[in-house]
Amino acid sequence: MDIADDEAVEKGVAHILATCGRIDAIVNNAAVNLRGSVEDVPMAEGREIMEINYFGTLRVCRAALPALRARKGSIINIGSFAGSIGTQFGGHYAASKYAVQGVTESLRRELAPFGVRVTNISPGFFRTGMSENIVVSDSMQDGAYAERFSRFMKNADKFMKNMTTPEPVAALVQEILESRNPKGYYFIGPAYQRAVLLAKRLLPQTAFEAIMDRVLE
């Protein structure tokens, strides 16, 4: 179903209920990634990212919640490493994933009395269809950020070629679905990415940003 379309989501959920009679769990995994500067990316492109990554997740949750309450089911929202750290030229994607993390925390508290388990998984960098098909805004072909952006994307391409495939994330999803009392938040990724998250919490902001800039540029 098209998660950016209200009617498509409602029809999709209705079809599942008509076919299977129940919904035990949903995993919101669909997303797109957009690269470009916050200043240059057109507002329409920024809205599209939010429409899919955030509002798409919200649509599916809202449409499925009556059935999930009836089954005391589970919701797993797939966030991102970018939902904790906003990198340069990834602001719109980061904003959408920060939003997913926030609404997941709220849903967890609201649905706990109904026995519905709600979890956010924030994967680090894995090689997926999305990572191999990142949308680059046409606005970045020239302008004040063009040189830095070109250098950033070259480094990002090299980095993505070394990423592992996402089977560990799938295994974690299964583990959570089989758990009677899963946590509200899980990060899964290489040890150095865990270290980055820890560094953000512990280091002065200027020091942390200086390190990130050197690594990414």
From TrEMBL:
Q: Which family does it belong to?
A: Belongs to the short-chain dehydrogenases/reductases (SDR) family.
Which superkingdom? Bacteria
UniProt entry keywords in alphabetical sequence:
Oxidoreductase
Which Gene3D superfamilies does this UniProt record tie to the protein?
A: NAD(P)-binding Rossmann-like Domain
| Protein name, per record | Short-chain dehydrogenase/reductase
Listed Pfam families: adh_short
